[in-house]
Amino acid sequence: MDKRQQLIHSAFELFYRNGIHAVGINQILQTAGVAKKTLYHHFASKEELIAAVVEYRDEKFYSWLASRLELVKPGYDGLNELFDAVDDWINNRVDLLSDFHGCFFINTCAEFNDPQQPIYQQCQHHKKKINSLIERQIRALGILEPATHHVTDSISLLKEGAIVMAHVQGDLTAANKAKDMAWIVLAAYLS
Amino acid sequence: MDKRQQLIHSAFELFYRNGIHAVGINQILQTAGVAKKTLYHHFASKEELIAAVVEYRDEKFYSWLASRLELVKPGYDGLNELFDAVDDWINNRVDLLSDFHGCFFINTCAEFNDPQQPIYQQCQHHKKKINSLIERQIRALGILEPATHHVTDSISLLKEGAIVMAHVQGDLTAANKAKDMAWIVLAAYLS
DNA sequence: AGAAGAATAGACAGATCGGTATACCTCTGT
DNA sequence: ACAGAGGTATACCGATCTGTCTATTCTTCT
């Protein structure tokens, strides 16, 4: 078991549940069962650890969603799978992603509330990657090319809305509502 | 000028821009131009100040939105106004609300990531109040009663999605996209 | 006039923060 | 066999955190 990975994993769990600024380094060390010297052997600063944690979550979440979408045909099936996946996540049916506490990237942007900051930009980059997964589904539907980006953003908006509704307002059916709306909206574009 | 209000105002501006945990009391005192003793005369702790700041923003935001909705007829006009208001907010055309840095309540839930916490519940309560404004519009549309709550949640989801898209992904047209989707979805319920 | 309340500046306490330093241990590769 | 990398535990540093305390001034009410 790699100590570096252990630190990232423990840090993520604590950050995700309590927020980044509310978690101190000593707490991470205690949880991970790792000495302070070891942390600073792998990372130059807390900031670097945070960056590594964001990257870790990016890879984990993206590869999870991508692999789920690969199980079905792009387009109709893919979009259903997208919202089903979010529904599973919200309702804690995905062990891999830890207990649902909202979107880690939205949460992190809320704490590092400045688009100039590298960590904020990492979060934006993650969202762009997720958007590209959605865009692939939209293209497969045969939507007119000039509308592709607009429709992709609209589906992304529904997905983000579902996550926030589930997190802040506790609506565990939000992903289903978003899915229903997605098909109503898409029908208008496909007619 | 009331010192208590001055503290709340300065604290809000700092919290909204930098996150709550990232802002120290001394920073608030310096910005507000107030002595430490005065702060602890009005508030028992930082926690109490935070609660007062959330309440302050709740009142300010709610009354702003409510008053905008009162200018138009409930129903069709009201829903258009809702998304126009969010669009104005996102694009910094509302001086009253300070520079857009996402939804303060979503951001705060991200930092106090536990539904048991009073501050988290204050944020949930704010969202319920906003939902009631939306529900009034939905009822005026003449939607079948059993669907009212479901449709209200759906519109709320679109609104939250727009805010997050604007904040995290920098899509300043998100509110317009949400408005378009709202009418497509509502048309399906009204037919 | 004089008491009370609200404000000031700033020293101070105790805890915790991120980060460094010291001294020692345990593997592993050549 | 032994050098070096990676690890442990822990003391320590200076800074900063929330919150308390002292001593003094300003304002306001009766």
UniProtKB/TrEMBL annotation, chains A, B:
Location of the DNA-binding region in this protein: 24-43
Residue intervals of the HTH tetR-type domain: 1-61
Entries under Gene3D superfamilies matching the protein: Tetracycline Repressor, domain 2
Entry superkingdom: Bacteria
Keyword Calcium attached: no
Keywords: DNA-binding, Transcription, Transcription regulation
Gene: yxaF
Single Gene Ontology MF annotation: DNA binding
Pfam families: TetR_N
Name this polypeptide is given: Putative HTH-type transcriptional regulator YxaF
